[in-house]
Every structure is written in structure tokens, then in C-alpha cells.
Amino acid sequence: MNDDLEERIRSGKALSESMGNFHVTGWDPERKALKAAFTVRPEYCHTNGTIAQGGFITAWLDAAMAHAVMHDSGHAQTVFSLEIKVSFYEKVSPGEGWVEGRVIRRGKRVAFLEASLYNPAGKLAAEASSTGLLAEL
User: Fold this and answer.
1) Residue 73, CB half-sphere, CA atoms under 13 Å: how many?
2) What is the pLDDT of residues 78-98, one digit of tens each?
3) Are 127 and 114 in contact (CB under 8 A)?
4) Positive or negative CA dihedral for 68, 72, 110, 80?
5) In this structure, are residues 61 and 75 in contact, taking their beta carbons and an 8 Å threshold?
6) Helix, strand, or coil (residue 32)
7) Alpha carbon of residue 56 to chain centroid
8) How far is CA 132 from CA 15, 35, 111, 123, 135, in A?
9) Rounded Cα gap, residues 47 and 100, in angstroms
10) Angle at CA 112, nearest 5°, toward 59 and 21?
11) Which of 78, 112, 114, 115 is the most buried (most CB within 10 A)?
12) What pLDDT digit, counting tens, does each position of 41-64 carry?
């Protein structure tokens, strides 16, 4: 592995890029809600490149919930998912999507989280709830 790739992996940039340039666009501390955007690339899709595969949708929901924990803790904690439940409502086609992750409750060791994902047409396409184990960064 070359030094540049190792640094991109350590910094999280490689993961962000591989998730359609997933990036945080806002944080509302009162609601404990984080917004993030990403690009749904055709290579993430099945059915001739028209519908995002569910694993990518789950990853965007999971990332938003994890970043919400990081922001809510002042970047002192991260979270390891213990379970995630995802409900799929609408298809997610190629284009620009966004997601909102929310901290429902953050205790000493466990966090309860939710997220909503909106497709490029602006429709609510999927929701998730998750329980996670908190860890110091």
C-alpha cells in the first residue's frame, strides 16, 4: 500500500470518497441532528444502474448516525453499531442525495440513534434506527 493511500484511509478521506463523497453539511445541536450529502453513483446501483443497492443506503444512514454521535460528543466519542434496522420506502436513483442522522439518547456506554435518507428527487426513501456502543476517539 502506498503512503498516500494509507494517509487517505487514516484520515477517512478514502471512505468518504468511496461512499459518493459523503460529507457533513450541517449540525443542529438543539435537535442533535446532523445533515450530510452524498452522490449516488450508477456503479452503486443494480437494475441497469438505476436503483441504489441497499447496502449503500444502509452505509449512508449508518454514517450519518455515527457522525451525529461525534458532533453531539464534541468529537470525543464515536459509536460502533450493535444493530441497525432499515426500512426502504422509495427507490434511490443516481444523483445527489442527503441524509439526516439523529441522536435520540446517548448514555455512558450506549447510544440510540435514528436516520432518514432522501433520494435525489427529494422523497423520503429510507429510515433506520440503531443501537450502538460508544467509544472514546
Assistant:
1) 23
2) 999 999 999 999 999 999 999
3) yes
4) positive
5) no
6) coil
7) 9
8) 20, 19, 5, 27, 9
9) 26
10) 25
11) 115
12) 999 999 999 999 999 999 999 999
